[in-house]
């Protein structure tokens, strides 16, 4: 394994499965591939802070074992709850629904607070909480 490094995702194309990370050291951008992600692809978006092992690939610097670095303030709800937050436009395909935004934030919060949950457990908890939020009108579909 290479050197543990921190950086920000410059861009990541979920469909193609690759992107680039700008290391905080200011060195050359690092190639990232979906096969090296720890977690679901949709969580890795432009500006996400990640830690990874920096290795030299055939074509230059390459990241492996890429993990999101979560800031605890990122999970605080805005005043008025989720309904007060407007959906941010997604790259190239309209708007992100409040339900999708809620599901993403919930996933990140679960990963932060209970690191021992499996992916399947997180999906089941997320589905249950999302359904509850919809029933109460806390989040629209």
TrEMBL record:
Residues 77-91 have a biased composition (Low complexity). Signal peptide: none annotated. It comes from the Bacteria. GO terms for molecular function: nucleic acid binding. It holds the Pfam family CSD. Residues 4-68 form the CSD domain. Residues 72-98 are annotated as: Disordered. InterPro entries: CSD, CSP_DNA-bd, NA-bd_OB-fold. This is Cold shock CspA family protein. It comes from Streptomyces spectabilis. The lineage of its organism: Bacteria, Bacillati, Actinomycetota, Actinomycetes, Kitasatosporales.
């Amino acid at each position: 394994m290479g050197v543990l490094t921190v950086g920000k995702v410059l861009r990541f194309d979920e469909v193609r499965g690759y992107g680039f990370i700008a290391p905080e050291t200011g060195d050359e951008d690092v190639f990232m591939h979906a096969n090296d992600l720890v977690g679901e692809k949709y969580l890795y978006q432009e500006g996400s802070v990640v830690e990874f092992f920096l290795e030299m690939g055939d074509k230059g610097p390459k990241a492996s074992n890429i993990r999101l670095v979560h800031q605890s303030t990122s999970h605080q709800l805005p005043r008025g709850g989720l309904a007060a937050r407007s959906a941010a436009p997604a790259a190239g395909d309209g708007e992100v629904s409040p339900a999708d935004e809620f599901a993403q934030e919930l996933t990140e919060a679960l990963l932060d607070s209970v690191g021992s949950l499996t992916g399947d457990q997180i999906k089941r908890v997320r589905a249950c909480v999302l359904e509850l939020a919809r029933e109460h009108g806390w989040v629209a579909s």
